[in-house]
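Technical note accompanying the year-one report. For the benefit of new consortium partners, we illustrate the data format agreed upon in the data management plan: each record pairs a sequence with a structure-token string. No post-processing was applied to the example shown here.
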Amino acid sequence: MTAVDPFTEQWQAWHGRHETTRADRHGFLAITSLHWLTDEPQRFADAPGEWSTGPDGVIVELGDGEELVVDGAPIRGRHRFGVLPERGGVTANWNDAAIEVAKRGGHDIVRPRHPANLLRVDYRGTPTYPPDPRWAVPGRYVPFEQPRPTTVGAAVDGLEHVYDAPGRVEFAVDGQPLTLTAFPGHRPGSLFVLFTDATSGVTTYAANRELALDPPAPDGAVTIDFNRAVNLPCAYSDLATCPLPPAENRLPIAIEAGEQIPYERRGK
């Protein structure tokens, strides 16, 4: 039996956790449809009620015998979700499904998530490059004087996302200096970058990949571990509204690390 080095062992544990989250019963692989709400009430085949939105936010009108559960409390009749923040949302439960009510690119949406969706049921994992310490690149975070509002495109034509970029990361690969504009991460002080590179559309997903970065050290030192570059939901499903990288994050080199084109997209 071949011994696994510590770097590979840590990567395998991380990627295993990531795959478990991706395949969660109410994760994005469970999404069955994407509905754009208007002021005209609409009924959908995969969610109860009639849905609409307006100046006061999202409203659902549940019919006789229909019920949702929000924050553990059953709701019937008319329910107001209120005005949702951009990239925020609420989950309403319906039997074994989760009904995502969210705002993306300034638009209110409803995305039902059903555990029995075949994309999730048939999911067999995502191919990756073998982990290689060469691609754990030292870099430096350089903050901007003020966060820069940065508008990027989306997987949905005509949709845009706006992020306040706090700075950029500078690094080098084989002596070639490179930079990536960074956006705020999910944890305090953390960052993430969206990027493409010379492998995009060849061995990796064409539109984008994402890489989370730990909070930089006080002197700005940060590790850019491309082994942990992952696909966004749009790599698997046309029902995603994922952001695209800003133009300056199109790297001219081949980043042969991280996740590759999903099996579900090969040949498409």
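Partners are asked to follow this layout when depositing records. The CA atoms of residues 57 and 82 lie 4 Å apart.
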